[in-house]
Write a structure and sequence with these properties.
375 residues, alpha/beta, TIM Barrel, Immunoglobulin-like, 2 domains, 6-stranded antiparallel sheet, 5-stranded parallel sheet, 27% helix, Glyco_hydro_36, alpha-galactosidase activity
């Protein structure tokens, strides 16, 4: 809350007796050993700080070490008398069967009816294999995969109608199920577990060709990156994440004082401009697939405001001058670049462009510029 962050999300591990990913999927009750005060206590503490509270679920999968599996081993997708494929230490529930969907619905509502929840991250961390239902006859067995997703949609339909105040976010080991069907129920999705900001330039650029920016969840992660090991500045990570639905996926208590101040500034800046980012017109100016310099921008519907994001992936000792031509502005309008107080004509920025060569020669640099129409 002191950083201005609006919501705290409790991730995997709050349920059953789960201490690693070998157990408890399917047992959606609170782990009292970890949380003696239950979810209600955490929810209250979070709300008392003026923040919202979110919770992680993976409703479609099940652990072999779970009460639900021990009671209903036949509720798992699999071919009789053949081994089932274990992936991420979990199996897939047979959502083609209404009884299975009903059970998960009842477990989830038992939690959500009692605890004030503002957000749910709905995860799905494996592929479907051995798509065979033990409760379907041979004439309809070929329909199992289709009936499975109908069961998923049925659960989503019931939950979103019952809890219209909850924001649901989709996730599937990253962006494995970032599609229009999911977006009918969940207005935003996690596009990839690859959270490195350099890789995210391509991910955001490509995803935005099909989906609106407001649907793309983007988080500032740790540095060095956990997957690639690249070290990037908080400014770089923040600029990439602000080009979507901003969040932070890190231990804020471990941040340096300088990074905490940077986060505070980023959050304040994003709050000031988030309607422009989420609902303005998005222009892809320079592609990360083709250039060392990447650029995109957002323009308000009335063309009175614009945000320009520029990124330089690799630095150079003597970088060549680089000009980025902007788009979507009013050619007759004069704009003030608020961080420098420089004035430009809309036609000038679109036809002649603006220098984007970084002052520093280091790798992975970012600049964000806000343009406002001069009265």
């Amino acid at each position: 809350a002191p950083l201005g962050i609006e919501m705290f999300v409790l991730d995997d591990g709050w349920f059953g007796h789960r201490n690693d990913d070998n157990s408890s999927l399917g047992d959606w009750f609170v782990n009292r050993n970890k949380l003696p005060g239950g979810l209600a206590d955490i929810s209250k503490r979070t709300h008392d700080k003026g923040m919202r509270f979110g919770l992680w679920f993976e409703p479609e999968n099940i652990s072999a070490d779970s009460d639900l599996y021990r009671a209903h081993p036949d509720w798992v997708l699999g071919v009789p008398d053949r081994g089932r494929t274990l992936s991420r230490n979990e199996y897939v529930l047979d959502f083609s069967q209404p009884d299975v969907v009903d059970n998960i619905f009842e477990q989830m509502t038992a939690v959500l009816d009692k605890v004030p929840i503002d957000y749910i991250k709905w995860d799905m961390n494996r592929n479907l294999t051995e798509v065979y239902s033990l409760h379907s006859d041979s004439a309809h067995e070929g329909e199992t995969s289709h009936r499975f997703i109908l069961g998923v949609y049925d659960l989503m339909e019931r939950l979103t109608k019952r809890y219209p105040q909850i924001l649901f976010e989709g996730c599937s080991g990253g962006g494995g199920r970032f599609d229009a069907g999911l977006m009918y129920y969940m207005p935003q999705s996690w596009p990839s577990d690859n959270n490195d900001p350099i890789e995210r330039l391509k991910i955001h650029y490509g995803t935005s060709l099909v989906y609106p920016i407001s649907a793309i969840t983007a988080h500032v992660g740790t540095s060095p990156d956990e997957l690639l090991g690249w070290s990037t500045s908080m400014k770089m990570r923040g600029a990439v994440a602000m080009s979507g639905t901003l969040g932070y996926e890190l231990d804020a208590a471990q941040l340096s004082d300088a990074d905490k101040q940077a986060v505070k500034r980023q959050v304040a800046f994003y709050k000031q401009h988030r309607e422009l980012v989420q609902y303005g017109t998005f222009y892809r100016l320079e592609s990360p697939f083709e250039s060392n310099t990447v650029a995109w921008m957002f323009v308000s519907p009335d063309q009175k405001e614009a945000l320009l994001f520029t990124f330089v992936i690799l630095g150079a000792v003597q970088p060549e001058p680089h000009i980025t031509k902007l788009a979507g502005l009013d050619p007759q309008q004069t704009y003030v670049e608020t961080d420098t107080n420089k004035m430009y004509g809309g036609d000038e920025l679109m036809q002649l462009g603006r220098y984007t060569t970084p002052v520093q020669t280091s790798d992975f640099t970012a600049q964000v510029h806000y343009f406002k129409a001069k009265d």
